[in-house]
């Protein structure tokens, strides 16, 4: 416990950590502020902006909250009409509020896809003839109308918060091992009465505690922001009516994540993001043990985190091309490099070399064989922070018959994280 507290203090007392944490918090708070200030609503010809717009949208929605009916839709249209004002610099109708925009989007012939591709609604459809109505009938869940915009903002803030948290973790944990190598003080630490194993265990425990605490604080701050500004209403609504980019999807007879309740979707996204943070921390600790300076550890960690994403973006237009194949194989290359540290140094030199080559080659061969059966790409931390990933996993689960895909991604991330942590222990101990 003494070493654990000491390592925790060493991480958290550094000026780099304190300044980085303050900067990350400032950026996140500023983003929250812009989310509030960018809100607007037009109600009976009166324009509201900022927090006042959010308050008015919540107020008019409360009048119609509860199970949605055709009669409620008719009353909303009679009271607030359809949005119709468009101007070139803005990517939305400028005279909408939460209610008439929701009705236009889901229950009318109107739409807005761009400045030159929009249609002002002229009439509504019966609920039973819409995607939301069919989803409600297929799942047996009542279709509810609540003010859900806060949960849409929750996803946005969570994504930004996790990216900032990832940067903070890289800066905080990269020196954990590498700093001792850089200042050549490792041998002194290993002479303590607790011994090598407890020294390393304390470093790992302290590093993972810092990463976990950063994630918990981001999540709590996000919930507090949504509660204080937007309210927690709409937890029982379909997640597909909350997220603009998802919508309710009809495959598998509407039995997919778009017809989960918004709260179920939120908790899944939180768990998904947590696994991503854990993997970032494990990668940071491994490369910290592998490199001779914190700067080199950060560079190596960034390459491990972003090279697969960068190659995927370059090669996505040609899934059979070498660039796309490399993007998938690189995901398993870096854990293979980590496994090299488990090869005993006591072996014959040639045997040791063969063992290390196999550690790199075998994971990539396994990945090549299973790449059509398992979505390795979605185990990359950056992808786990993107809430839209779940719709792709939905497709694999429902259309391709991979019912285990979500559990498989989490299991793979957990296994890779354990590999990095074990290999960081081994690498630092023998280096």
Quick description:
The chain has about 425 residues and is mainly alpha-helical.
Task: Give the arrangement of secondary structure elements.
Blueprint: H1 2-12, H2 15-37, E1 40-43, E2 46-49, H3 50-62, E3 66-67, H4 70-80, H5 98-107, E4 111-114, E5 117-119, H6 131-139, E6 144-145, H7 149-173, H8 175-182, H9 186-189, H10 195-229, H11 262-290, H12 294-315, H13 322-339, H14 349-370, H15 381-384, H16 389-399, H17 405-430
Antiparallel strand pairs: 1-2, 3-6, 4-5
Helix pairs in contact: 1-10, 2-7, 4-5, 7-10, 7-11, 8-11, 10-11, 10-17, 11-12, 11-17, 12-13, 13-14
Span from first to last CA? 25 Å
- What is the structural class? mainly alpha
Order of helices and strands: HHEEHEHHEEHEHHHHHHHHHHH
Count of distinct strands: 6
What is the number of independent domains? 2
**Shape field:** elongated
Averaged pLDDT, please? 86
Query: So how many helices?
Result: 17
Physical arrangement of strands within the biggest beta sheet? 1-2
The main pleated sheet reads as: 2 strands, antiparallel
Radius of gyration: 25 Å
Please mark out the parts with pLDDT under 50 across 5 or more consecutive residues, or reply none. Answer: none
Indicate the percent of residues in helices. Answer: 55-70%
Strand content: under 5%
Account of the 3D structure:
- By secondary structure, the chain is mainly alpha-helical.
- It has 2 domains: 307 residues, no CATH class; 80 residues, no CATH class.
- Helix content is 65%, strand content 4%.
- The protein contains 17 helices and 6 strands.
- The strands form 3 sheets. The protein has a two-stranded antiparallel ribbon with strand order 1-2.
- Helix 1 crosses helix 10 and helix 2 packs antiparallel against helix 7.
